Amino acid sequence: MEGILKQHIHKQLEEIKRLLISKQSFAPALYRLYRHLAQNGRHAQIISCYRFALLYADKQQKEQLLHPYLLQAFLAEGQLRQAKCLARRLLNQNPADKETSKLINGLKIRQESTLPAFTAVAAVSAYAVKTPRKTKQQPVPPLWRQAQTLFDAKNLEAIGYFATRQKLARFSRTYKNTLCEIFDELTASYLLQNYRAVAVLAGALLELLLARHLEQKLHKKKLSAAGRKPQNIYELNLNDLIELCTRHGLLNAHLLRLTRVARAQRNFIHPGKEVTSQTVLTPAGARICFLTIREIADAL
After folding, report:
1. Measured between alpha carbons, how far is 19 from 277 in angstroms, rounded to an integer?
2. Considering the chain, what is the average pLDDT of its residues?
3. 71 and 161 both lie in a single domain
4. pTM score > 0.85 for this model?
5. Is residue 140 part of a domain?
């Protein structure tokens, strides 16, 4: 069945290619193909068909390749950046199109929440609709009371916050906002001595920085780690990314040692590790995580 379907799609694409090259009307045939694939849940194939048609379309024809089914496909495949760009172009073409507007609303929900679309917070937590009970007030943690002092400019300067954030802000727009937001959370956790959060956030930043470094140096979107099939660099875990950087010689010995030590600190975020090994994530371990981010940002 799969083979027959592929042959059918190939035949339709060849017809669309012929129409594109001959400057004849191709949109009805392409939209029929989009619809057929959407109904069968083959969103990745819709995107492939679009990219195939792009090869033969001139500037004017490229605008006709766009369709709400293509937007639906980008959303289904989780390609939100492309979906956002396509949504703007579709709205410029036809602001009154209800189908496009519905999909764009879905895109906004996806961007604003990691919950499934249309899931209200009250639906997943009883506490969202409860009135808090009056309880006996407990002492506020001392560090929280000192927050104003901890977060003053002089203290932030002393730990290198401004210098590192400035370096992260020089990354391209695709990465900059995420890097800066995670670094802000990391700095706040570090100052408040939330060391488990420091280990997790440092690991997240390292993953993004190393994945971008690999993509930039090797000019590849997919790589094979630990003998597995090639997969998207941004889906690899920190251990895989460090292994790939080692294999391709993309980090010096000092930075590799730092990243491995920082990765090891993440083991201590599991309560079971603390109970069985009688070892905790120490201030020194958290400091290593924080300093690793500063040095990696400097180097990359």
Report:
1. 69
2. 83
3. no
4. no
5. no
